[in-house]
DNA sequence: TTTCATACCTAGATACTCTAGGTATAGAGC
DNA sequence: GCTCTATACCTAGAGTATCTAGGTATGAAA
C-alpha cells in the first residue's frame, strides 16, 4: 500500500508558498521541504511540471532573472492564483476533516 | 486545478471503516459517504478495485454471504490490515500536519 | 580542474481514480 | 405478472498526477 497523499495537492501547496513570496522552482522545492519539516521532499520532475501547469492555468506568472549570475525563472502568484489558493485551502479543510472522521482522529 | 486529495489514500480510508466492522463493498461506499458527511461519494469503479488490491496485499479477507438472499462479499480486516491502518493513520497525521503548515492553517 | 550544489527541463513508467459500460437479484408499485 | 428502482457485484480503458531517470549548464569550492 503505497501512500501518496500528495496526489492532486501539489498545486495548492506551491501556491501556499508563493502566496507569501515569489520564488524560483528550485527554491520552492527547498522552502516546501523546510516548511514541512522534511515531509515534502519533492523531486524536480514533480515540481517543474506542476509550475508549468499553474502558469498555463493563469495562477502564477514567471519572469527570467539573472541578477544572481545564474539564470532563474521567478514565479509570482496572480490574483487568480490567490483565489485558487483560497479555494484549494477550503477544499483541503473539508477533505482533511472528513479523513479525520473516517480514520477516527479526535480533533 | 482539479483537486483529488484522495489519491493513494482510499485504501487507508477503507481500512478505517473495516477496522470497526466487517462490511461488503456496496455498504462500504455508503458508510464512507455517511461518515464523511457526503464528502466521499465514491464510484463503485473506484472502490471495488481498491478492495481487491487490499485483499491481494493481505490487509483484508473476504467471504461470500447469501443470508440476505442477495449475494454479497463480506470484507474483514486482518491483523496485517490493522497494522497497515495504524501505519497509514500515522502517515496521514504527519502529512496533514505538514499541509496545514504550508497552507497556513493555525491548528 | 574536478566535484558538488544550484537551476532548469522533459519523456516515459507507474499507479491511482474515474467513466462507462456490463450482469444479476430483491422488492415495490401497478 | 410486469416494470422499475435499489442493491450488489465486476472490469476495461481513459484520464491524470507523481515519480524515475535521464539530460544540460553554471558558479563556487576544494
How would you describe this protein?
Two copies of one chain form a homodimer. With 107 residues, chain A is α+β, with helices and mostly antiparallel strands. The first copy, chain A, has a single domain, classed as Orthogonal Bundle (Arc Repressor Mutant, subunit A), CATH 1.10.10.10. Helix content of chain A is 54%, strand content 13%. Chain A has helices at 10-18, 25-35, 44-56, 79-103, and strands at residues 23-24, 60-65, 72-77. A three-stranded antiparallel β-sheet of chain A has the order 1-3-2. In chain A, a hairpin with a 6-residue loop joins strand 2 (60-65) and strand 3. In chain A, helix 2 (25-35) crosses helix 3. The interface between A and B is large, with 43 and 45 residues. The structure holds a DNA duplex (30 and 30 nucleotides).
Question: Mind sketching the topology for me?
Answer:
The structure is a homodimer of 107-residue chains.
Chain A: H1 10-18, E1 23-24, H2 25-35, H3 44-56, E2 60-65, E3 72-77, H4 79-103
Antiparallel strand pairs in A: 1-3, 2-3
Chain A binds a DNA duplex (30 and 30 nucleotides) through residues 2, 4, 6-8, 10, 24-27, 42-46, 48-50, 52-53, 68-73.
Rg of chain A, please? 15 Å
The main sheet of chain A orders its strands as 1-3-2
Tally of separate domains of chain A: 1
The third-level CATH topology of chain A is Arc Repressor Mutant, subunit A
Give structural attributes.
homodimer, 107 residues, alpha+beta, Arc Repressor Mutant, subunit A, 4 helices, 54% helix, 13% strand, DNA-binding
Amino acid at each position: 500500500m503505497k501512500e501518496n497523499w500528495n496526489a492532486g495537492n501539489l498545486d495548492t501547496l506551491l501556491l501556499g508558498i508563493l502566496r507569501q513570496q515569489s520564488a524560483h522552482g528550485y527554491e520552492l522545492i527547498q522552502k516546501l521541504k523546510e516548511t514541512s519539516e522534511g515531509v515534502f521532499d519533492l523531486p524536480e520532475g514533480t515540481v517543474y511540471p506542476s509550475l508549468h501547469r499553474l502558469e498555463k492555468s493563469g495562477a502564477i506568472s514567471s519572469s527570467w532573472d539573472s541578477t544572481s549570475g545564474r539564470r532563474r525563472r521567478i514565479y509570482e502568484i496572480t490574483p487568480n492564483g490567490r483565489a485558487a489558493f483560497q479555494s484549494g485551502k477550503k477544499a483541503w479543510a473539508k477533505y482533511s476533516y472528513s479523513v479525520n472522521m473516517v480514520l477516527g482522529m479526535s480533533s
